[in-house]
Write a structure and sequence with these properties.
The chain is mainly α. It is 53% helix and 0% strand.
């Protein structure tokens, strides 16, 4: 048994959380008819940030994306 637990790293990564929060903020902007800000260039180098941002469609919900 490898000991791998799905989602373990994401739950503990501050970069994942930051990406997810930025995506949520972008989703709210899109819902309000505003343009999304996109990923934070200062954090976008982090794979965990990218995964967090992409977790909900990169800040754009499926309904709004068309």
């Amino acid at each position: 048994m490898s000991g791998y637990k799905a989602g373990y790293s994401e739950e503990r990564s501050p970069f994942y959380r930051a990406g997810f929060e930025d995506a949520e903020a972008d989703a709210a902007r899109v819902a309000n008819g505003e343009d999304p800000q996109g990923m934070d260039p200062a954090k976008a180098w982090s794979v965990m940030y990218q995964r967090g941002y992409g977790a909900i469609g990169g800040g754009i919900s499926a309904e709004k994306a068309g």
